[in-house]
Amino acid sequence: MTHKDIWRLSATETVAHTHAGDLSAEASIAASISRMDAANPALNAVVVDLRTEALERARDLDKARTAGATPGPLHGVPVTIKINVDQAGQASSNGVLALKDLIAPADAPIVENLQKAGAVVIGRTNTPEFSFRADTDNPLFGRTYNPWSKHISPGGSSGGAGAAVMAGIGGLAHGNDIGGSLRFPAAANGAVTVKPGLGRVPAYNPSQTAERGMLAQSMSVQGLLTRSAADLHLSMPTMIAPDPRDPFHVPLPWRGAPLEGPLKVAFTKNTFGYDLHPEVEAALDDARYALVDAGYIVEEVEPPNVFDAGRTGYRALMGEVYTLMKKDIDAAGSQTVRDIFSVYFQEFPPFQDTELLQMMAKRTYYARQWSLFLEQYPLVLTPFLPQPFFKPDRDTEGAEGVHEVLGCAVYSYAINYMGLPAGCVPARLADLPHGPQPINVQIVARRWREDLAVDACAAIEARAGRMCDLLWDRMTQ
Fold first, then answer.
1. What's the mean pLDDT in 211-230?
2. Model confidence over 447-465: pLDDT tens digits?
3. Domain ranges of the chain
4. CB–CB of 437/152 below 8 Å?
5. 10, 24, 32, 82: the active-site residue
6. Is 82 a catalytic site residue?
7. pLDDT score of 132
8. Which three-class secondary structure string do you get for the chain?
9. CA dist., res. 443 & res. 421, Å (int)
10. Active site includes 181?
């Protein structure tokens, strides 16, 4: 195989070749670096280039393999890490100028688990300041662009990860999600992801000097952006390996027990008064047909309390942010991000004092209602956003912009608030005035059953096709 062929391999295909012995780790990583050289200058997705370390590590993997070592489950797979997670010797800048020299003393669990499995980190990907926008730009590294079009935001906060993996820079891209930061870039770039449920993937940054707020701890999760659902099934068992630094991690296997009979899927198009774009509606219909064709029973039924749970959850999170983070944002953030947060506090009036504690407690009420509903319907097919993905810097355009970007995304942050898993997968390529654009849908699953969400994503992907194949044809035109 040539470099031109190798970088196109999925993570699953890469592992098949490295395990068979017809592709070395070094060749895999060298091909990905060549692709990074070709694609990244136009995207600014990878902002810290780690090629020297990556090639050295790949050679070490090959030497160990030659000496008789058993290759790991991700042997030779090139990966990227988001710049808000600790990687030993690298800055966890979080897109903030004041943190550009915050050097991590050790690897976070996610980095350690990936490398133990044989993956090789080729670079670190961009995020907005404080990783708190659904778009990706910051004063430290600048703007990241969407490989489909500069007229479409790459999403955020894992925007660099989404743009990189879909452009073919690495087979897997690490990201994280407190209100949608895996699913926004998946939807923007046409990637596939699963937002793990609370406690599923161990998390900790050795560079931190204080513990995060309780809602940040209970809503934020670590995950991956991929080009196919199969790559999630390949890689997530590695991601969920336990780490004692996360005392609340739950050590369950990736695959849960099989459920009897055809799985029932609740299906809704309700967008709570926000306009549902015809292409989003068509994507939902395409996803429903795909699931029915795959043997699922899909019933149009309304799940409980989505709007209330979402708005309550994000207003509570804003209350915690206002109390614990506002001073840091005001001191170290750019004027742009300070202005955005001012509008966030208008869009989501922060709960404070006694009311904040009451709304944090109410999280259990919403989670219980969904838990009971998911006993009858183990999966729920929902919109992710009611409209096709927005343009860059839309959230800098005052109340209207923030409302379009985040205000309408209740299906996103409601799921974080309740700690449930949710897949996000492209179901359709829309033909819009600025050009083709992927449209993703969301699949919510029972607690601890990320595997069911990924199975459903695979069924939808089988009908829609892999968006990366369509994108790469477009990028070479």
1. 98
2. 999 999 999 999 999 999 9
3. 3-475
4. yes
5. 82
6. yes
7. 97
8. CCHHHHCCCCHHHHHHHHHHCCCCHHHHHHHHHHHHHHHHHHHCCEEEECHHHHHHHHHHHHHHHHCCCCCCCCCCCEEEEECCCCCCCCECCCCCHHHCCCECCCCCHHHHHHHHCCCEEEEEECCCHHHCCCCCCCCCCCCCCCCCCCCCCCCCCCHHHHHHHHHCCCCEEEEEECCCCCHHHHHHHCCEEEECCCCCCCCCCCCCCCCCCHHHHHHCEEEEEECCHHHHHHHHHHHCCCCCCCCCCCCCCCCCCCCCCCCEEEECCCCCCCCCCHHHHHHHHHHHHHHHHCCCEEEECCCCCHHHHHHHHHHHHHHHHHHHCHHHHHHHCCHHHHHHHHHHHHHCCCCCHHHHHHHHHHHHHHHHHHHHHHHHCCEEEEECCCCCCCCCCHHHCHHHHHHHHHHCCHHHHHHHHHCCCEEEEEEEEEEECCEEEEEEEEEEECCCCHHHHHHHHHHHHHHHCCHHHHHHHHHCC
9. 8
10. yes
> Is residue 419 a contact partner of residue 447, using CB atoms and an 8 Å limit?
yes
Residue 371 a catalytic site member = no
Given CA atoms 369, 409, 266, 381 in this order, what sign does their dihedral have? negative
State how far the Cα of 295 lies from the Cα of 123, in Å rounded to an integer.
40
pLDDT tops 90 at residue 324 = yes
Predicted confidence (pLDDT) at residue 4 exceeds the cutoff of 80: no
- Tokens representing 100 are 């550009």
Contact 31/170 with Cβ under 8 angstroms? no
Q: Which two tokens stand for residue 467?
A: 């968006």
Six-digit token string for 473: 């044809």
Percent of the chain with pLDDT over 70: 99
Please tell me which residue in 28, 153, 181, 228 is annotated as part of the active site: 181
pLDDT at 136: 98
Assign domain 3-475 one CATH number from 3.30.70.1450, 3.90.1300.10, 3.10.129.10, 3.20.20.100. 3.90.1300.10
The predicted structure's pLDDT at residue 476? 62
Mean pLDDT for the chain overall:
97
Q: Which of 10, 24, 157, 228 is catalytic?
A: 157
Confidence of residue 2 (pLDDT cuts 50, 70, 90): confident
Q: How far apart are CA 22 and CA 353, in angstroms?
A: 61
Residue 477 pLDDT: 52
Cα-based distances in Å from 204 to 246, 247, 453: 6, 10, 25
pLDDT per position as a tens digit, 254-282: 999 999 989 999 999 999 999 999 999 99
